[in-house]
Amino acid sequence: MQHVTPKEAAKILGVHVSSLRRWENEGKLRAIRTPGGQRRFILEEVEKIGGIPRTIKTICYGRVSTHSQQDEQRQLEHLRTRYPEAEIISEVGSGLNFKRKKFLAILERIIDGDIQRVVVAHPDRLVRFGFELVRWLCTKFECELVVLNDRKLSPEQELVQDMLSSIHCFSSRLYGLRKYKSSIKEDLQKEVASQGIDKAVTEQCIENQAIS
């Protein structure tokens, strides 16, 4: 959520700073106080009072599991065509990995009120599981979540890979009941190297075993 100083708010509205104080006292305009006691106004509310149309910040997010997938460029071109003014963010990583840096950065920006619309080609481009939780978060912070539902941009091979990774994760947890964590980590790392399973997913499996 973006804030402005009284001087900046007065300039946007074309009024004197004293008018802002009066509106604040009348409850027409909210103000917050900084740790130093200075007033700050919410930019969106200032623009609303002034009848200024709200600028919609749109993010288009594309994801593939590996660098070798040519699908990424098709995703981005498709999104860019539909939303030419949007900020394009692409990422390489498994849809099962909730620790993707750019994915988490987008969630933080939604919570901060910096993004008003997120666009993806298909739900699994955002997350393989837990999409409804992301949708709930967007709704709570007044961010529109647009899904184009283009199944051509959701590779079948990636779905197979994610399913194998899920099976691998659960199998590893059962295996963990019989061996110490250090032994499990060594075995999993060998398996990652031989089968090309997403490293972040494997590390998450190891952390889950430590909890259980």
From TrEMBL:
Domain Resolvase/invertase-type recombinase catalytic: 57-195
InterPro entries with a match to the protein in the record: DNA-bd_dom_put_sf (IPR009061), IS607_transposase-like (IPR041718), MerR-type_HTH_dom (IPR000551), Recombinase/Transposase-rel (IPR051491), Resolv_N (IPR006119), Resolvase-like_N_sf (IPR036162), SinI_DNA-bd (IPR010093), Transpos_IS607 (IPR048046)
SMART domains, per database record: Resolvase
Membrane-crossing segments per the record: none
GO MF annotation list: DNA binding; DNA strand exchange activity
GO biological process, one term: regulation of DNA-templated transcription
Residues in HTH merR-type domain copies: 3-41
SUPFAM superfamilies named among the record's database cross-references: Putative DNA-binding domain, Resolvase-like
PROSITE patterns (UniProt xref): HTH_MERR_2 (PS50937), RECOMBINASES_3 (PS51736)
Stated name of the protein: IS607 family transposase
Native source organism of the sequence: Anabaenopsis elenkinii CCIBt3563
